[in-house]
Amino acid sequence: MFKQPQTVLVAPEVQSTSQARLPAGIAEVPLAHRPVSLALIRLRSWSSRTQHIGYETHVHAEAAVAAALVTLLQKCSPSEDIFVATPHRIQREAVNTALARIEMEDDIRELEAEFGRMDIQPSYFTRSKVTVDTIERLQGSEAAFVICLFSLPRGYTTDLGFLLERRRLNVAISRAKALCILISSDEVLCPSVKILADEETAKGYAFLKAFEKRAWSYNLAVNTEKVSI
Predict the structure, then answer these.
(1) Cβ-Cβ contacts under 8 Å for 55 (sequence gap 6 or more)
(2) CA-to-CA distance for 43 and 227, rounded, in angstroms?
(3) Which of 47, 73, 152, 174 is the 20 to 30 Å CA partner of 80?
(4) Do residues 38 and 182 make contact, with C-beta atoms less than 8 angstroms apart?
(5) What pLDDT, on a 0 to 100 scale, did the predictor assign at position 117?
């Protein structure tokens, strides 16, 4: 699924949120009311069969990445809640489908079954609560880890104004209590000047760029031929 080689993790451009060290124009864009670790995955879906990746195909690739991240976070912090914040219901359904496909390894399943026969629930088998829902429905609630889906396939600009709405970005990112992972793409991170002519969209873009400057980032290419739909 992942195209090799992957690029290395890139350190944030802004290492501190103090006023003195922020780039011009960024200081007035608050990201959160408390320190939260930020990460940005620049997703690129690709296929050897075609240059054009359809929207739904890209959504399933994005969902596969989100499901993999959920699994890793569960292994690292099994007792912490996880949110996957999606802009639309199609992403929500794709992530739920991807999560349903992930199964435990055979040895873990067998060991868990043995404990089940003895009516014992060991702490290291405790599953964190995973909530996958639209950003609007997650408003007002929080989780330790939040994965935000804000990516688009190459050449797809129809949804840009919606994704670059500042309020929507703020609601999604501010759900996190410890770590926020934002999955985006060049179509969203580097839109055309025409898209940014709208004042509200430009404000959302400035907010997104402020996040990007503070986040550890990673470029990830996903082969859609390897993603189950």
Answers:
(1) 152, 153, 156
(2) 14
(3) 152
(4) yes
(5) 57
pLDDT at 48 over 80: yes
CATH code for the domain of 187 = 3.40.50.300
Residue 9 belongs to a domain: no
Q: Provide the domain count of the chain.
A: 1
Q: Where are the alpha helices (DSSP H) in 89-159?
A: 89-101, 106-117, 135-138
Domain that holds residue 174: 19-226
Cβ pair 86, 130 in contact under 8 A? no
134 part of a folded domain: yes
Q: Residue 37 phi/psi, 5° resolution?
A: -70, 135
CB 148 within 8 A of CB 173: yes
In a domain, 29, yes or no: yes
Domain annotation covers residue 10? no
Phi and psi at 183, nearest 5°, equal: -95, 115
Enter the tokens of residue 190.
Answer: 């580097």
Q: How do residues 108-153 score in pLDDT, each as one tens digit?
A: 455 555 555 555 444 444 567 999 999 999 999 999 999 999 999 9
22 pLDDT above the threshold of 80: no
